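Exam prep: given the inputs below (a chain plus zinc ion), describe the expected output before reading on.
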Amino acid sequence: MEAVVRILVDNRVGMVRDPYLGRHGLAVVVEVPSEDLRVLFDTGPSKDVLENNLRVAGLGRGFDAVVISHEHWDHTGGLGAVEAERVVKPGGDEVDLLDGAIVATRTFEGEYEGEPMPERSLIVGDLALIGCCHFRLEELLEEYEPRMVLGGLHLMGRPRRELDRVVEALLDHGVRRVFPCHCTGIPESSYLANRVGGEPGYVPMELRVEL
Ligand SMILES: [Zn+2]
Ligand SMILES: [Zn+2]
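Solution:
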């Protein structure tokens, strides 16, 4: 069984392939063709961006589940553009979406500008999708043991020693490929990918994951 993971919305305007719209935010589509399952992880900053990029990607607006990582506008803004049988928001325990192969993680106790910011991730086989990582990354790595990480790691403009701390944490926990994007920052994403393996995420990046 295989999952196809596509970054549908991301910040990198300059790297975006027209006519995809690049905007500050994140949305990732996970499809498992053999199970006819479609899950959306985060929805980008607005309805029109998500609608446009779904149309360009040839995807409809219907999903089995939408998982929202955390309640920031650049992750929730497009929610109105999709129809979902189930919406999993931050708060509470993990939610199994496909026999343990696709799981919305438990809610981690994140923090943003001194305020609590609960946040979930989405596990797809060996891959962890991360919204903004306002929580301690090591907690997720210890509990879910992913080998690949894709998404926002909130490192834009951070000093080298902080990047090195994240690199060490990833390597120490057995992560071998990263696809940083969104709030990771462009030079920071390249640095992480060079040190750990993988490549910076861009739109519309496609990744095939064995489940
Ligand atoms: Zn964000
Ligand atoms: Zn955020």
